[in-house]
Design a protein that fits this description.
Elements: H1 9-19, H2 24-36, H3 39-53, H4 57-73, H5 75-90, H6 98-107, H7 112-145
Helix pairs in contact: 1-2, 1-7, 2-7, 3-6, 3-7, 4-6, 5-6, 5-7, 6-7
């Protein structure tokens, strides 16, 4: 479930799963699955939902803020389209995951099939990076504490 949330995504799901003594393979699989299950619905629904909700002041301000953040961080997406979208999602930093990737794909009008593939591959790459860093950190901390 943590993998599906916009704030944690794979960046929070993997360390949490490892802390709960889940195997690295299971942690990776469930985090990628959780983060990936939001891609298609977000790509299909973001545009029509944001368009309707913009009629209300709070939501207009929220979506203006959201799209502005995506525009600020979306230089690589705008320049390289699908490849840029994959790189954008793959970088395991705040505001660069699948949710932000869906916003960027919508903002820069990347076709669904290309956006879905790029975001999914970005999620897999980010999950592998987070897993390697998490295992390295855990093993280093364990060695120091022995």
């Amino acid at each position: 479930m943590l993998g599906a949330l916009p704030v944690s995504e794979v960046r929070g799901a993997i360390p949490a799963a490892l802390a709960m003594k889940m195997s690295p393979q299971s942690a990776l699989m469930w985090a990628v699955l959780g983060n990936s299950m939001i891609i298609a619905p977000a790509l299909f629904l973001l545009e029509p939902i944001s368009r309707r909700l913009r009629n209300f002041g709070f939501w207009r301000r929220f979506f203006d803020w959201l799209f502005e953040k995506a525009r600020e961080k979306g230089d690589v997406v705008q320049r390289y389209e699908s490849l840029g979208l994959m790189i954008f999602v793959a970088i395991p930093l705040p505001m660069t995951g699948a949710w932000s990737g869906c916003v960027a794909a919508s903002l820069f009008r990347i076709k669904f099939r290309y956006a879905f593939a790029a975001i999914f591959l970005g999620v897999v790459i980010a999950a592998i990076i987070v897993m390697v860093v998490s295992l390295f950190t855990y093993n280093t901390a364990s060695a120091i504490l022995r």
